[in-house]
Amino acid sequence: MSDCREVRSREPKLRQLIVELIEQARALSLVFRLARELQDAWVNCPALSAALMVAELGVKAAAIQEALEKHARAHLDELAEILRNWRQQHASHGGPERL
User: For burial by CB atoms within 10 Å, which of 9, 45, 57, 74 has the most?
Assistant: First the structure.
């Protein structure tokens, strides 16, 4: 009978841990979705901006788009490095290793 009481006494703490785990998983999912949307926006930006810049500057579209893509990809590489460093720091603290 003592075992039953012990299990029941731990039940509220277990429920709280489950809720926290679900909240953490949801937050991680939202952060991942936001990161994906930001990446997509950066990848698509050169094509969208090139047309506007061609009209504004009167230069060849291919050259503008190529330059913009080069710089956008370099920026995405910088962001990826920030994410890698963040993962390493938080993985060592028992945090999520995958984002």
Answer: 45
Tokens 């926006």 correspond to: 41
The predicted structure's pLDDT at residue 86: 83
Cα 64 to Cα 67: distance, rounded to the nearest angstrom: 5
Helix axes 2-57, 61-91, angle to 10 degrees: 160
Check if the beta carbon of residue 42 is closer than 8 Å to that of residue 76: yes
Q: How far is CA 83 from the centre of its chain?
A: 8
CA distance 83 to 32: 11
Kindly list the distances between the CA atom of residue 89 and the CA atoms of 67, 72, 85, 95, in Å, as whole numbers in the listed order.
34, 26, 6, 9
pLDDT value of residue 99:
47
